[in-house]
C-alpha cells in the first residue's frame, strides 16, 4: 500500500532554489548539461534534485543508462514551477519599478514671499519633479518660519524652506542661497527724495516697522538703530506699512524690486542699511525619506 504524503504546506526560499535547479536540468536535458548553466557540480545537482523529490514526495525524472526523462508528475511540476518562477520574477520587476517611479505626496512648507527670488531653485526643482512624473501630488503651504520647522518636526511636512538663523537640533539644514534685505520707504515718505543720501539722524528719527518673527543677530542690530513704533508678522505686512508713506522698514531686495521699478519705493542709504540671511532647505533628522523627497532634494541641488 502506498504511503500517504503530506501536502506541501508552504513554498520557502529553499524550495525556489531547488525548483530553479530542476528547471535548468529539464531545459538542459541532463545533469551534466545543467552544470555550466547553474555553475555547480553534477553531484551537487543530484543532491538538489533528491532534496526536491523528497520535499514534493514524488519522482520527477528518470536518470540512468537509458538516459534522462521527465516523469508525468515531473512534467506537471515543471509547468507549475515555470509559472511560479515567472510570477516571482514579475513581482521582483514590479517592486523595482516602484522604486524608480515617483508616485505619492510631497508636502512642502515655505516662508512667504520667496517666489520673487531671481534664482528660485525650489520652483525649478518642483518643475523637474513634475516632468519626471505627473503622479506626484504637490501640497505647498506658506507659513512663518517657526511654523514650517514645527511642521517638518512633527511629520506634517516633508521639507521646508526657512532662514538659517537658530538651527533646531532635530532638523537638518541644507543651505540654498543668501537673501539680502535693505531699508525702504515709499514715494509718499519725506525721505524718498533723498533716499540715496539720507543721513543717520534722519533714519533714527523716522517711524519704522520691526518684524515679530525670528531675526538674525545682524538684523536685530540694524533694527535697534531705528525708531520702531510699529510691528508686522511677515514681509507682506511690512510692505503694507511702508506703502502708507508713514513708515520705513526692511524688505528683501527681490520682494521690493517690483515697487522700486514702478517708482513706488526706494532703498534708503543703499550699501549701508542692509543685511543678508542664508535660506536653507530643512528636513527632519533620522527620518527615512521617500523617493520623491530624495529626488526633489537632488533636483534642488542640480539647479
TrEMBL record:
GO MF annotation list: DNA-binding transcription factor activity; transcription cis-regulatory region binding
Keyword Transcription among record annotations: yes
Keyword Transcription regulation among record annotations: yes
InterPro entries recorded: LysR_HTH_N, LysR_subst-bd, WH-like_DNA-bd_sf, WH_DNA-bd_sf
CDD domains (UniProt xref): PBP2_LTTR_substrate (cd05466)
Start and end residues of each HTH lysR-type domain: 14-71
Keywords, ordered alphabetically: DNA-binding, Transcription, Transcription regulation
One Pfam family here: LysR_substrate
PANTHER family named in the record: HTH-TYPE TRANSCRIPTIONAL ACTIVATOR BAUR, HTH-TYPE TRANSCRIPTIONAL REGULATOR
Assigned protein family: Belongs to the LysR transcriptional regulatory family.
Descriptive protein name: Regulatory protein LysR
Species per Swiss-Prot/TrEMBL record: Sphaerotilus natans subsp. natans DSM 6575
